[in-house]
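# step 3/5: fold
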Amino acid sequence: MSASRSRLHRVAVLVLEGAKPLDVGIPAQVFTTRASMPYEVRVCGAAPGLVAGGDGLAYHVTHGLEALAWADIVFVPGYRFPDHEDPPRAVIDALIAAHERGARLAAISTGAFALAATGLLDGRRATTHWHYARALAAKHPLVRVDENVLFVDEGSVLTSAGAASGIDLCLHVLRGDIGVSASNHAARRLVAAPYRSGGQAQYVPRSVPEPLGERFAATREWALHRLGEPLTLEALARHAGVSPRTFSRRFAEDTGYTPMQWVMRARVDVARELLERSQRGIEQIAADVGLGTGANLRLHFQRILGTTPTEYRRTFTRGE
């Protein structure tokens, strides 16, 4: 088994006063230790004991800030009234120390305010729940706030929008840590979409008739079963029953990608899973996913993922 898969990834979920229940529960559930998931989760607070939460709930956490010194990745769930005051200084210092030690910091929703208070988001893109985006920009003007995305990955610091996009962020982390196959398995367990672009809008800015939305979802499903065949914009639009121009515009609103960008990324994702789970050669995989040749697969792999199929397989192949 590769180092990425075999070593245990340590996750700390930092519960701040006023923490939102769904935001706390998402990373705690997604990364919970099980045979298919090489993660250990510790839920912590500024100190062990009772933490007053939002929405009428409270949390009894076992660990204090020492968990941040232990973790490889720290999730900061959203909390109520984040624009009123910063978290305690000890929390901010612990987040900075964890980052300096090499841990990734990931915020869900208004947890971005806590990360911004550390200064680690200065000069970086970040997002938060759309309702608080202007407040984040006003309170931390050096942060490049983007309210029109589901999540932002800046490498060592990651932020996401409202609670549901926390699932997208967690699945994004899983894909990078342990591969597409494991991420898709987790998505099925959560009954969640296996992949939504981080660049997808938090909400559609104008009304899209529900039947049209359903048709587009059906077209995406139809395309996923035909990735090995030629797929053109015209063919996709014809299946959806709209003009190519309408299809392109509405598709981008729904997914964050143009139709052909989405098809290409879907093909690369299927190729990733085949590299992880099968012994098929590069040429065969390229043909199976509709990319034609191994050279074409290598080209798009490098452009989208910054690596080669061979190196990817080496990283994510299971050992005995």
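# step 4/5: annotate
The chain is about 50% helix and 10% strand.
# step 5/5: archive (pending)
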